[in-house]
Every structure is written in structure tokens, then in C-alpha cells.
Amino acid sequence: MLTQDDPLLLRHDDARGVVTVTMNRPQAFNALSEGMLDALQAECDALAKDESARVLIVAAAGKAFCAGHDLREMRAAPSLGYYQQLFARCAKVMQSLQQLPIPVIARVQGVATAAGCQLVASCDLAVALRSARFAVSGVNLGLFCSSPAVALSRNMGRKEAFEMLVTGEFVDAAEAQRRGLVNRLADDVAGLDAAVEQLAASIVAKPRQAVALGKQLFYRQLEAGVAAAYVDAGHTMACNMMDEAALEGVLAFVDKRPPAWGR
Questions:
Q1: Confidence check: pLDDT of 193 > 50
Q2: Which whole-number Å values give the CA distances from 232 to 22, 206, 212, 217, in the listed order?
Q3: What is the arithmetic mean of pLDDT over 248-258?
Q4: pTM of the full predicted structure?
């Protein structure tokens, strides 16, 4: 049984630069308490400066991936100011994940609701068990999931996202994949780990700089008009092309040999 001294996040780094952080509040369904938000933010801040990191995997202990905000904590001392700063802290975590120069993979082994579903949507990639379920169910309590709506509406079609937000109904993993919230599905935990590893291995096989430039451009252009997006994309590709890894990659393709990248 966990005690108050157990860490809210467990971290594991491998030799390739694949970092796994595991939310460690299974008894509370890994709810995003203030402490959990602070721990996630601290990891994001550290990884933003860590040039050896290549991939971040966000995982969870227990049966649930994340049940959203800690409702008991939220009701302890209700005030407008408190709620504003709480949701601002949560938004900062979600944005920090997208601002990291490395891809972030959600490893979803169980239910993800409200801000937990937002967390999945804020990761760049997601792999889930077929038994996992997803919902933004705050409306069932009289609280529209406004912050999760930002991430959710940027992952799936507007009508599909809005339906989840106004009904609070669960969707299964297969439907979440169809809607664009999840990339890959697995039948069991072994398959889940294998699918996450396959994605991570594919990413670390590529030059870090190219992936970092690409991720930053990907999110920037989504918020821009088409013309401005193409200007930004062209400039990014030109800068990328001048990188030694890209020059070597093109030369290797011409020479019909594997690129000699020092990863």
C-alpha cells in the first residue's frame, strides 16, 4: 500500500534517452492533484533543458490512467481565485508537454476522464489498451470541461468533440482511435508496452534536431493561416536542410547506404 512518502511520479531513463514518468496515485486513480501537477511541471521543465532526452512516455500505475482533477482537493477551500490558479497550472502542464522538443507518448492502460482525457489529448502520440475508455464527464457534475475542450477539439472533429463534452458519455478505445485521440491499440499490457516501444524506437532512430524542429513547426502551423503556415514551414525546412544530419541523410539516400548519424 502506498504511503504519503511515496513519490507522486516515478521516473525511469534508458540509455537511448527514452524517459518514462509514471503517475503513482493508483488509490486515487492518478487524479491530477496540485502535487501531481507540480511534479509533472517539474519533469517538463527539467526535460526541456535535457539534450540527452529523446522521447517522453507518460504512464500510470494501477487500473486507471487518470481520473482528472482531484475533486476532494478542489472542494476543500473553494474560491474563484483558487480555481483560476489551479486551472492555469493545469493548462501550463498541458502546454509544456507540447512545447517540449521531444515527442510525448501517452501509455493509456485504463480509464482517462476529464483532465485525464485532456492529458492524453495533450500528448503528441497515444497508445491504449482496447479496454481503456475515455470521457470528458464534468458536465455530469454540472461542470463543463472547458479546459479539456481546448485539447480535445484539436485532436478530433468538432462535432465529435462537442458531443463528448455535452453528454459526458464514455467512448471506448476503438472509437477514440477512429476519432483521432489514440494512435494505436493493444490487446494486453505486453502488447501495450510493445506498441509504445515500437513508436519510441522509431523516433530515437531519427536525428533529434529534425524531430525537434518538426514538432515545434507542427503545432505552430496549426494555429496559423494557410499562407503563413507555408512560409513558416518553408523556413523551417530550409533551416533543417542546413543541419548536418539532414545533409548526411540526403547524401546517404543518393549513395544508397544507411545514414551515418551520431545519435
A1: yes
A2: 35, 22, 15, 7
A3: 79
A4: 0.91
